[in-house]
Specification:
The protein is an alpha/beta fold and 212 residues long. It has one domain: Vaccinia Virus protein VP39 (Rossmann fold), CATH 3.40.50.150. 35% of the residues lie in helices and 24% in strands. It has a 7-stranded mixed β-sheet with strand order 3-2-1-4-5-7-6, with helices on both faces. Strand 1, helix 3 and strand 2 form a beta-alpha-beta unit. The longest helix has 12 residues.
């Protein structure tokens, strides 16, 4: 099964995919708006929701005055987003392929719970780098993995967490994420755990800056 098909089937499991929201979205919203304040007036900021899914976060940013576009690999989700929000531009892209977006087009790329799903992580991080302007921000979330949580998971929930039929195929630590990002000129400037509590956070919230 390829990435695109798996992604489509994942959305098909939701009875109402266009209204589904990640329970952590309110926390992500708060932290992202805080990170964006350093860039100034929302009306001057171009933001790409990379892996936009249902478009819930895309619309959140639009409602707060940012100039926003969405991107996803799911034809059905992109079609539904275009119908629901005809005033927003949504891009359909092949999995882990270069998009139609021009180099350096965006001040911010927001990508939530995406990088754990991809086979070619180098291609995806290269696309982040390519799309961002120099000094731009990559804001991403991905499931949290660190030593204590990994030990607990192995002891009490190994089969569920590492289910080979599930779509999560990359298990990021702070070190591995820093290493891959750094190879693409993206430097982490802020880390935070969200969901649950330390040391069992659900996800990382990371802000990275593209080197000038």
């Amino acid at each position: 099964m390829n990435t695109g098909r798996a992604h489509e089937e994942g959305w098909a499991k939701h009875s109402q995919p266009t209204t589904w929201r990640d329970p952590l979205d309110p926390k992500k919203e708060k932290l992202t708006i805080r990170a964006l304040r350093e860039l100034g007036d929302p009306a001057s900021i171009r933001l790409l929701d990379f892996g936009c899914g249902t478009g819930a976060m895309t619309r959140f940013f639009v409602d707060r005055g940012y100039r926003v576009e969405g991107l996803d690999i799911s034809p059905s989700i992109i079609e539904q987003n275009r119908k629901m929000s005809p005033g927003i531009k949504f891009h359909l892209v092949e999995p882990e392929e270069r998009s139609e977006i021009a180099d350096g087009s965006f001040d911010v790329v927001f990508s939530s719970e995406v990088v754990e799903h991809v086979y070619d992580v180098m291609a995806v991080f290269e696309e982040f780098r390519r799309i961002l302007r120099p000094g731009g921000l990559l804001i991403l979330t991905t499931p949290y993995h660190a030593r204590i949580k990994n030990v607990v998971t192995a002891l009490v929930a190994f089969e569920k967490h590492f289910d080979p039929t599930w779509q999560h195929i990359r298990f990021w630590t702070r070190k591995s994420l820093t290493d891959v990002a750094s190879r693409h000129g993206l430097t982490p400037i802020r880390w935070q755990g969200i969901g649950r509590f330390w040391p069992l956070y659900k996800s990382f919230f990371v802000v990275l800056r593209k080197d000038s």
